[in-house]
Amino acid sequence: MPIERQPPPIEQIAQRLAARMARDGIRVEQGPSPAVPTKGEDRRQRSLRSGHLPAEAKPRHAPPRDNGAYVPEMAARIEDDPNLTDGARRCARKLAEYIYRRDRETRSAEITVTYLMRALRRDRRTVQRYLRQLEHAGYISVEIIHAATRMCAGLLVELLAPLFARHHRRQWPQKLIKKDAARKSQNNRFRIKYSRESWALRCMDGVFRSLMRTIPPLPAIV
């Protein structure tokens, strides 16, 4: 029959452990055992973790460079509208800044969602939700620009009257320029800019060309 080995006594185990710790240089500090937190102490620790400011400040990003751009005067109605979120208001200010620099006369310009994503630092669905809120509230008008491949090439955004202050609803004030200087810069004179009407005519060019191909040629003159 197999002989059952008796486990060594606890004193021998303690002596072996002490000898091993002394050999390896392990040092154990004796201290009071941690107390079990009570219900009130647990609530206090949870309040300290969630309700107080963190001890370490968050890392700050580099400030944006001063490019001279600014947001033109807008109506205070957009700040008081309860149907808009803070992100939609910020998107409206960014649109006003962009269109003011691009085309202040027609108050409309071509823009892409990708540009707004980078400017606002938001994802695509969030920017689309901002534009939808502004459009439903009547502050902007958005039309999709289709490319020749039936894909979206961008957006044509027009600022509407409720977005402007009362004294700027007709037009924005012109820049302070010299009397003898040209009103418009000649740097982009070769660049074609389309309004909403001319863009619709340009989109119908393909249909017109297809229609002209169906017409038989004129008979040859003998």
Task: List the defining traits of the structure above.
single chain, 222 residues, mainly alpha, Arc Repressor Mutant, subunit A, 3-stranded antiparallel beta sheet, 8 helices, 40% helix
SSE layout and pairings?
Blueprint (H helix, E strand, L loop, with lengths): L9 H15 L14 H13 L25 H4 L5 H17 L5 E4 L1 H8 L3 H13 L3 E7 L5 E8 L36 H8 L1 H10 L8
Antiparallel strand pairs: 1-3, 2-3
Helix pairs in contact: 4-6
Overall, the morphology is elongated
Largest beta-sheet characterization: 3 strands, antiparallel
Multimeric status of the protein: single chain
CATH topology of the domain at 77-171 and 194-209, which one?
A: Arc Repressor Mutant, subunit A
**What is the name of the CATH architecture of the domain at 77-171 and 194-209?**
Orthogonal Bundle
Number of separate helices? 8
Give the CATH class of the domain at 77-171 and 194-209: Mainly Alpha
Gap between N and C termini? 127 Å
Helix content: 25-40%
Instruction: Give me the count of strands.
Output: 3
Strand content: 5-15%
Walkthrough of the structure:
The chain has 222 residues and is mainly alpha-helical. 40% of the residues lie in helices and 9% in strands. It has a domain at 77-171 and 194-209: Winged helix-like DNA-binding domain superfamily/Winged helix DNA-binding domain (Arc Repressor Mutant, subunit A, Orthogonal Bundle). It has helices spanning 10-24, 39-51, 77-80, 86-102, 113-120, 124-136, 196-203, 205-214; strands at 108-111, 140-146, 152-159. Strands 1-3-2 form a three-stranded antiparallel sheet. Helix 4 (86-102) crosses helix 6 (124-136). The radius of gyration is 36 Å and the shape is elongated. The chain starts with 9 loop residues before the first helix and ends in an 8-residue tail after the last helix. The mean pLDDT is 80.
